[in-house]
């Protein structure tokens, strides 16, 4: 019987490796024939075909990639990973690191809107010496590079490279390990420079925070090129020496039940993570018959991050799967960003993330004033817990002054996991900011760090716990009043049944007398376009937003399903919505 989450004890004292390749070599010696990574392929079979590598097999495959790369590149050269979601991705990424090169986790060319333009932009920015892919993708990748005039890098298919012995390259904690390109929800993608020390530090933090141990299995459908997917699906399992089960994101989107089925199939303690929308999505798509086959008592931690965590989504998910053994105490609201590898804070184990309701107007004015749950003008936020082995402060973004508890400001963080800057850009003002106290004295960052990371996110600390309120660049300011777009978006999606959930974007545009608010939303798939009374829907949205927020909307636009711009990780791109609205291309 699995030990309940609140009784588990996680020991990170034995995780002493200074790099992921070193950790892999250790487990190849100590856990030679135990399973290291499994990829469940749903393309060839709708029921899934599992392909696994042991620690010894993974280590040998990584050696082969490292040997090939080391003979064709110099220390510090970039290696772009253009591999489909698979065990081969793990091989390619770790092979580049073992060769002393700088990996760039990306994705193969794709017909998905915007993907190829983003891929071309990132490749032009990082200038890779080598591009790693697979035999199946090689022709398409080669054509893409030629068409985009990016044909300089050497190309290799990692699944056909011959076995080769390789003497490990010495890797220092300060050496660059990889460039994690941001998802670009509020700006053009930038490559965060992550050192070996950064990723090992955050993997240790994740191992402890999610209560992992040697018997754990990580189950992830998140893309490995995304920060959360890379850490949950690769870095933490490799550092911790436990098994990882990977799925393709598309397999989850087509049948989200597969995620819980894979969790149920794990023989011991299981951990996973996903954006908030995934929890509501799997709850709405799982039938009672499918639910009856799921036993999930052994799940230890379910991380939730990369977008606002909604109380209603959590309630729907845990109510739906309570009979399967899932409980809110398993849920871990995680706050982080690519600039800090992925994790900054997490809600504590053993109890549900705390929910607090604040007066909406006071919150927008910069003060967290608690009110009773269900209050008419209240905004309920889910706690993101406490920082994990790092420092966190709430700071006035204009002055750098550290604010007291209960005041809303920019979240600043400092820790061994924070990256060293953006590739090819001057970024000290973001990664080495100076915070001051009320006496004007500098506030010391984490030991050994040059300064504080400015996250660009707004939050408040109350009773020692962090609550995320929004992003600075997304804040809507109309007639001198602040409005958080996520609050407006929740109101809008509940205003009319023809509005598709989790597809609403609220943003500000310049008007004749100052900023004005605009809302765009997708039509629900189950509602035919001909059945929508646009005037009625618009009136309902305007009335709801006016009543709840005291805000008059300039325009309400209803779009077709799939038309609202998103990042590679699925987050709504408010900035892209704003730009396309201004251009008239929405």
Automatic annotation (TrEMBL):
Query: What SUPFAM superfamilies does this protein map onto?
Result: Acetyl-CoA synthetase-like
> Does Glycosyltransferase count among this protein's keywords?
no
Entry keywords, A to Z: Fatty acid metabolism, Ligase, Lipid metabolism
Which protein is depicted? Fatty-acid--CoA ligase
Molecular function in Gene Ontology: adenylyltransferase activity; ligase activity
Outline the extent of the AMP-binding enzyme C-terminal domain. 474-585
BP term (GO), one = Actinobacterium-type cell wall biogenesis
Entry-linked PANTHER family: DISCO-INTERACTING PROTEIN 2, DISCO-INTERACTING PROTEIN 2 DIP2 -RELATED
List all membrane-crossing ranges.
none
Q: Which organism is it from?
A: Actinokineospora fastidiosa
Annotated AMP-dependent synthetase/ligase domain ranges read: 25-423
Question: Which family is annotated?
Answer: Belongs to the ATP-dependent AMP-binding enzyme family.
A GO CC annotation given for this chain: plasma membrane
């Amino acid at each position: 019987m699995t030990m309940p989450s609140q009784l588990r004890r996680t020991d990170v004292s034995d995780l002493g490796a200074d790099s992921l390749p070193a950790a892999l070599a250790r487990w190849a010696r100590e856990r030679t024939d135990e399973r290291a990574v499994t990829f469940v392929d749903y393309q060839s079979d709708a029921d899934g075909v599992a392909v696994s590598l042991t620690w010894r097999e993974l280590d040998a495959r990584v050696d082969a990639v490292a040997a090939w790369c080391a003979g064709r590149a110099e220390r510090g050269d970039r290696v772009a990973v253009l591999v489909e979601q698979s065990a081969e991705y793990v091989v390619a990424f770790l092979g580049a690191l073992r060769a002393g090169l700088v990996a760039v986790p990306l994705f193969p060319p794709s017909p998905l809107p915007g993907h190829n333009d983003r891929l071309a932009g990132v490749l032009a920015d990082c200038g890779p010496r080598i591009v790693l892919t697979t035999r199946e993708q090689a022709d398409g990748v080669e054509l893409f590079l030629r068409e985009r005039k990016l044909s300089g890098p050497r190309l290799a298919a990692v699944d056909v490279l011959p076995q080769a012995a390789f003497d490990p390259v010495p890797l220092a904690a300060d050496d660059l390990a990889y460039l994690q390109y941001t998802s670009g929800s509020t700006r053009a993608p930038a490559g965060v420079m992550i050192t070996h020390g950064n990723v090992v530090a955050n993997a240790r933090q994740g191992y402890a925070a999610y209560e992992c141990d040697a018997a754990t299995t990580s189950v992830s459908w998140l893309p490995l090129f995304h920060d959360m997917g890379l850490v949950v699906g690769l870095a933490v399992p490799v550092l911790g020496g436990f098994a990882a089960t990977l799925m393709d994101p598309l397999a989850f989107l087509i049948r989200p039940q597969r995620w819980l089925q894979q969790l149920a199939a794990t023989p011991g303690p299981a951990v996973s993570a996903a954006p908030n929308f995934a929890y509501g999505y799997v709850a709405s798509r799982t039938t009672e018959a499918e639910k009856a086959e799921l036993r999930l008592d052994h799940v230890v931690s379910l991380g939730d991050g990369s977008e606002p965590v909604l109380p209603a989504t959590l309630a729907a998910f845990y109510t739906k799967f309570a009979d399967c053994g899932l409980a809110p105490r398993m849920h871990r609201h995680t706050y982080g960003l690519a600039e800090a590898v992925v994790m900054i804070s997490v809600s504590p184990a053993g109890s549900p993330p705390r929910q607090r309701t604040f007066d909406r107007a006071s919150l927008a004015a910069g003060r967290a004033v608690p009110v009773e749950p269900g209050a008419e003008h209240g905004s309920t936020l889910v706690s993101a817990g406490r920082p994990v082995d790092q420092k966190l402060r709430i700071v006035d973004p204009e002055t750098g002054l550290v604010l007291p508890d209960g005041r809303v400001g920019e979240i600043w963080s400092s820790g061994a996991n924070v990256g060293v800057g953006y590739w090819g850009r001057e970024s000290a003002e973001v990664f080495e900011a100076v915070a001051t106290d009320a006496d004007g004295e500098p506030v010391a960052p984490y030991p050994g760090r040059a300064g504080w990371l400015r996250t660009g996110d707004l939050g408040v600390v109350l009773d020692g716990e962090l609550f995320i309120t929004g992003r600075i660049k997304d804040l809507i300011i109309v007639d001198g009043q602040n409005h958080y777009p996520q609050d407006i978006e929740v109101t809008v999606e509940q205003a009319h049944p023809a509005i598709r959930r989790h597809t609403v974007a609220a943003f500000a545009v310049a008007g004749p007398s100052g900023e004005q608010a605009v809302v765009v939303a997708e039509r629900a798939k189950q509602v035919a376009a001909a059945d929508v009374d646009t005037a009625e829907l618009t009136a309902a949205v305007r009335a709801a937003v006016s009543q709840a927020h005291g805000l008059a909307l300039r325009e309400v636009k209803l779009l077709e399903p799939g038309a609202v711009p998103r990042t590679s990780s699925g987050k709504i791109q408010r900035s892209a919505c704003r730009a396309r609205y201004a251009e008239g291309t929405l």
